[in-house]
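Work Package 4 report. The design task specified in the project plan requires that, given a folded chain encoded as structure tokens, an amino acid be chosen for each position. We show below one input record used in the internal validation round.
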């Protein structure tokens, strides 16, 4: 059985620094010990691979089909009122990933070839293929608009990054640091029944440590920092999930950690801020010139900190924003998220999703989830913004925080403040790659209000028993609407992040 799956999943070859507020200062405590499963991963990095025709058992297509088959198919999943989990086969490294999925499927797979094929990084047997790296492919967006003192760091990062991702030892260490290889893809049977349309699947990033969907990017960039000889990590943070995981990994790797948060976000997450400090992180709070203490202020302050300490500090950008090559680095590691979805959906249903949905703030979830499906015009890619932080919907072209992208600004080019109940969506700008996809018409962008987010939170809680993050809660109503639009026999995937403490009292009053 494993060999059959392995063959099925064999990939073909087809981017004023201030000290911390005194109210947040405390002595650092030792990080909490954790038991980390050890993974044995064989890394294969072929330089010139010749595409060969392989024989597979039965009628199973090669995994190149995962990224190239058309959507002219019918995929009916047996739900039987129970929660179905799609995971990788059980292995000695992952004994928990062992559930079999009852699937009834009728699949028609005609030949399909549309656009440039996506070459995946992850292989079914755990090996890693060097990713195809390209910089500056964001159309009129992107670029490097930074002080000259930061250019040396950016050039060094570009060189180290290209060398690292082609080095087998880099990916071997990367695999050992992953707390789990796959997060589950689960069938939301009750949510599907409520929509009375397409089958709804949930990519359960809430089951990552601290519930963040950025683990792949954080681990990859921390390893790059060590290769560059950097001893201190500075990162921007909105929802504390990202900061907590970064602090935890820095403790494991022996790196100093500085987490920059907007002052308002830090005050709203005091317990999480304390947890970061217990993990050894130093907290710096920031406000924008207009007085907003949100993610925009945190990114600006983190950039300033890295410029002032560019010889020893590595700036771990929380999202795919900032000057090149930072967006490309983030996207490369985050694309593993979308690859997991492609493999899991193909294993469970024999086909690919008809739509993939995620909330969009800076765009970290979007560049990860959408990237492997980008060349497939038959897969709808839908992003959901907070209605008062909708840079993709209401923004215009400008330069902010090191790159040219879409942003909320007035007629004089001054940045307008944003607002969202979710700190991760409360940003006046978006990553240049997502802006490029939007300008090309490849991704669909919708908006949601705070009330929609609270309603989505309750829907996931009441129907599936999941305490979701406020960011992914924004997209729930869009998924329900999209499922009705697509109709039965289609499949929609929603990325779900872990719950955060912000707004929990308000949410509980409505539950």
């Amino acid at each position: 059985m494993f060999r059959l799956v392995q063959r099925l999943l064999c990939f073909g070859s087809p981017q004023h620094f201030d000290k911390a507020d005194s109210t947040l200062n405390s002595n650092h405590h030792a990080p909490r010990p954790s038991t980390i499963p050890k993974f044995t991963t064989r890394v294969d990095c072929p330089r010139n691979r010749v595409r060969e025709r392989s024989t597979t058992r039965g009628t199973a297509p090669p995994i190149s089909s995962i990224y190239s088959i058309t959507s002219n198919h019918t995929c009916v999943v047996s739900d039987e009122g129970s929660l179905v989990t799609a995971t990788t086969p059980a292995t000695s490294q992952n004994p928990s990933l062992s559930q079999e999925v009852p699937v009834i499927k009728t699949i028609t797979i005609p030949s399909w070839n549309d656009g440039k094929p996506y070459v995946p990084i992850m292989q079914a047997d755990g090996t890693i293929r060097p990713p195809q790296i390209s910089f500056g492919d964001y159309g009129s967006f992107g670029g490097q608009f930074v002080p000259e003192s930061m250019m040396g760091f950016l050039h060094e990062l570009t060189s180290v990054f290209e060398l690292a991702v082609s080095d087998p030892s880099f990916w071997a260490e990367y695999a050992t640091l992953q707390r789990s290889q796959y997060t589950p893809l689960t069938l939301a049977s009750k949510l599907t029944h409520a929509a009375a349309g397409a089958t709804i699947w949930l990519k359960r990033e809430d089951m990552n440590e601290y519930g963040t969907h950025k683990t792949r990017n954080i681990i990859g960039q921390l390893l790059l920092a060590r290769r560059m000889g950097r001893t201190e990590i500075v990162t921007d943070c909105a929802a504390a999930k990202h900061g907590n995981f970064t602090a935890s990994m820095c403790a494991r790797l022996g790196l100093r950690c500085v987490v920059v948060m907007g002052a308002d976000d830090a005050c709203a997450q005091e317990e999480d801020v304390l947890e970061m400090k217990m993990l050894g992180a130093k907290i710096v709070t920031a406000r924008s010139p207009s007085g907003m203490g949100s993610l925009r202020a945190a990114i600006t302050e983190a950039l300033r900190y890295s410029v002032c300490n560019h010889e020893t500090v590595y700036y771990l950008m929380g999202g795919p924003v900032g000057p090149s090559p930072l967006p490309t680095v983030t996207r490369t590691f985050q694309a593993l998220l979308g690859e997991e979805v492609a493999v899991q959906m193909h294993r469970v249903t024999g086909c690919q999703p008809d739509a993939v949905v995620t909330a969009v703030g800076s765009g970290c979830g979007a560049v990860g989830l959408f990237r492997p499906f980008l060349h497939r015009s038959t897969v709808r890619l839908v992003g959901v913004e907070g209605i008062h932080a909708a840079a993709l919907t209401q923004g215009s072209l400008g330069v902010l925080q090191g790159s040219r992208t879409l942003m909320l600004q007035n007629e004089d080019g001054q940045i307008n403040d944003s607002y969202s109940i979710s700190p991760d969506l409360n940003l006046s700008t978006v990553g240049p790659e997502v802006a490029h996809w939007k300008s090309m018409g490849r991704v669909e962008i919708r908006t949601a209000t705070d009330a929609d987010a609270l309603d989505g939170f309750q829907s996931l809680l009441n129907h599936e028993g999941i305490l979701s993050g406020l960011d992914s809660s924004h997209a729930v109503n869009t998924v329900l609407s999209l499922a009705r639009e697509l109709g039965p026999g289609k499949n929609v995937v929603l990325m779900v992040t872990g719950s955060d403490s912000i707004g929990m009292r308000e949410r509980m009053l409505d539950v």
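The longest strand covers residues 256-262. Validation will be extended to a larger panel in the next phase.
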